[in-house]
Amino acid sequence: MTNTKYEFKYASHPEDAKAYGTDELRSHFLLDNLFQDDFIKLTYSMYDRYVVGGIKPVNKDLQLETIPYFKSEFFLERREIGIINVGGTGTVIVDGTPYQLEKKEALYIGKGIKEVVFKADGNPLFYINSAPAHQSFPTKKVGKKSAEVIELGDSKYANKRILNKLIVSSIVSTCQLQMGITELVEGNVWNTMPVHTHERRMEAYFYFDLEAGQTVCHFMGQPQNTRHIFLENNQAVLSPEWSIHSGAGTSNYAFIWGMAGENLDYSDMDVCPPNLMK
């Protein structure tokens, strides 16, 4: 495993999280340094045993390997994975079959695939999410034309955004994994507003295409006990099932949402009106 780095994060009780200071919040929820030259960087989370990672092949191809937490012979022995390219054009080889991904295109790979190789052929940045799987579903690429695109929000409230559903049940058959991209329209800064929680699944947010020198303030916590974490470009944050997941940037940006749990219904959420948050 010379080209794989990994870390482990425990789940936190909401009562404990109320007492976390800045450093503790960042330690428990922030995922940093995802893209390292010629490395696969993974975080194994106890929230639904979700894995978040970044893969940056530069001088050599990188093969996806299992990690000790899985206790499996290969990465996808009992898992599924979603891949979204956020860099230059790149290629993923799945058991010998190549799939080319442009920026903001996705690839779903199901349980049982033994060999996944990330090619160093065009400065790609592969962002990945993985969840346990009980059934095998076919590998499927979701290009820009295949996505479900929805316009949300209003410039009046600084939250006009474009939602791109990529790996969702209406497009790809999965066990529990769902992923997509939300892009803030220029001049708008708020995402996922009004906020919501969904106790039936957790999420991870990955922020990218953020202008250099700018930041996103990610809001988390229970709706009446909110906390915040400042994020830079290409950083991610874990969102427990009890937590809101929203953000406001000092400029517009894009983010990838990924989730896993027992419900594949995208609209399954418990909304909290803005004026009731604390």
Automatic annotation (TrEMBL):
Keyword check for Mitochondrion: no
Cross-referenced Pfam families: KduI
Pathway: Glycan metabolism; pectin degradation; 2-dehydro-3-deoxy-D-gluconate from pectin: step 4/5
A GO MF label: zinc ion binding
Gene3D superfamilies according to UniProt: Jelly Rolls (2.60.120.10), pectin degrading enzyme 5-keto 4- deoxyuronate isomerase, domain 1 (2.60.120.520)
EC number: 5.3.1.17
Cytoplasm keyword on record: no
Annotated Zn(2+) binding sites: 196, 198, 203, 245
Top-level taxon of the source organism: Bacteria
Note on how the cofactor is bound: Binds 1 zinc ion per subunit.
Cofactor(s) the record lists: Zn(2+)
Purpose of the protein: Catalyzes the isomerization of 5-dehydro-4-deoxy-D-glucuronate to 3-deoxy-D-glycero-2,5-hexodiulosonate.
Protein family according to the UniProt entry: Belongs to the KduI family.
Name this protein carries in UniProt: 4-deoxy-L-threo-5-hexosulose-uronate ketol-isomerase
Organism: Saonia flava
